[in-house]
Structure formats: structure tokens, C-alpha cells
# Entry
Amino acid sequence: MNRLKRIEGQVRGLQRMVEEDSYCVDVLTQVAAVQTALEQVAINVLDGHVRGCVADALSGEDEDDAQVKLDELMDAVRRFSRARP
Amino acid sequence: MNRLKRIEGQVRGLQRMVEEDSYCVDVLTQVAAVQTALEQVAINVLDGHVRGCVADALSGEDEDDAQVKLDELMDAVRRFSRARP
Amino acid sequence: MNRLKRIEGQVRGLQRMVEEDSYCVDVLTQVAAVQTALEQVAINVLDGHVRGCVADALSGEDEDDAQVKLDELMDAVRRFSRARP
Amino acid sequence: MNRLKRIEGQVRGLQRMVEEDSYCVDVLTQVAAVQTALEQVAINVLDGHVRGCVADALSGEDEDDAQVKLDELMDAVRRFSRARP
# Structure
């Protein structure tokens, strides 16, 4: 949550930079910083998901649920991978 | 600028999702959407930079300035490439 | 395995292009094709790993082993994510 | 060229690993190494292209050629960016 607050602040900073016509390369540097912060959020959420939902489903009895969780997980990984769809 | 306003809204949406304990996979889908939007911003800024500053510098007389602009450009491209630093 | 044979062929094609001094943009297009093919290999290996080793460990009795498998998995995901280390 | 020879060797190493049924995580580590090497090749080719063809076109008289070169460059950057198409 703190991370997301900080990201909101960074996006507002970006708006200010664009308004003030900042140098393009500085804008790009700031965009890259926001992306890195977002990716960190994604990795954390994914980590919690794998150790929570996915681990529970796999150690449980419901085979169909385990299957659904694994499919969802791989879809999410694919979306965050460097692979093109 | 409109894009950045929309991205700010999306980040606030993410905060709400985390507050309301939304399903992890939905949070991940939303994070991926914000990343795609940010990358679009980056490409647009880079495009403007190449066709503006860089093109001017290269068609100008000042060889040192052209050199600086090309170095900066390649640094920015590297930062947005899939290459690890 | 077939995919890896094809990738080897593509890399040899790249060597030929460099030797024959092909147009840079064509070389870049070919490099991107090899990267996409490799990423597909990575996703397939990861998928097999999650549905095999990781699923087995999580549905088994050995809690330490399950933990190790989850840590390894998240390391691998991180490495293939767009996140910078 | 040396880099591409090394990448060919790495891809053959990957084939051996798959044949010998190596541990998935080790295969993934090796795939990531090949990707990093390829991305380095891409950055080098792009760098040569920008400082060569693109710089020449922009400092030349032919405005249409300069335009074509800039369009091609941005297409290539987009392809190697983390942005989804």
C-alpha cells in the first residue's frame, strides 16, 4: 500500500514534468523509475499469491481447484514475462 | 498528459483493490494494464525526443552536441530494453 | 527440443547475416525472433516445473521441500519478469 | 560475431541439458543467460545503426530518407522495449 501511494506521487511528479516541459531524457528516467516500482509491486503480489492461494490449493483435496490455480498462475507469469504474447 | 491522468486514476484504482483485499490475480491484471500504459508514454516521449532534439542535433553543426544526444538516446533505449543492466 | 534445434538454426542464420553485412534493421528483426522463441522455451520449462516438481512438493508431506521449491520458483519468475534486479 | 558464436554454443548446451533431463531451474537459468547475451547483441547492433545509418541520414540532405530511418528506428526500439505490442 505504501508503495502504491509512492507510485501515485511519482505519477503526479511526471504530470508536473510534462506540464513544465522538462527535458525528455529526465521524463524517461522518471517513467523508468515508476515502472520499476510497479514491477516490484507485481512481484510482491505474485509471491503472496503463490505462497497463499496456490500453495493452499495444491496441498488441498480439490484437484480441479488446484488445476484452476495453476492455470491462472501461469497466465499471470506469462503476462509479466518478457515473452511476447 | 491525458494518458498520465488516466494512469493516476488506475494507480488509485489499484490502491482501492488492495484495500478491499481483491483477488490477487485481478490485482496483477490491473498492474499489467498500468505498466502497458506507462510503456506507451515512454515510447511517445522517446519518439518525440528522437524526432525533435536528436534530429536537430544531428542535422546541426555542433558535433559534440550530436554526440551527447546520441549517447543519451542509447542510454534511454537500454533502460527501456529487455536487456538486463 | 525441436524448438531448441530451430533456435540453433536461427542463431547460425544471424551469424551469416552479420558476415554478409546485412542491413542492421533486418539483423534486429531476426534477433527479436530468436528472443521470442527462447522466451517460449522458458515459459514451457517453467510450466512443466510448476505442474511437476512444485505441485508434487506442495501436495507432499515435506514442508521444507515445499518451501525450497516455492523460493526457487519465485527466483525464476523474477528472473524472467520485466522487473529490474 | 564472437558473441554469436558463444550464443550458438550456449544453445547447444541447452539442448544437452534437455537431453540429459537436467533440473528445470538450471535449464531456466541457462535460458536467461542466452537471453541476456542476445539482448547485448541487439543493443550493439542498434547502437551501430543509430550512430551509422541514422546519423548519416539525419545530417544528409535527403529529408525523406531521414524520415524513413527515424520510422525504422522507432519500430526497432518498440520491438525491444518492454512495451506490449
Notes: Residues 78 and 85 of chain C are 8 Å apart (CA to CA).
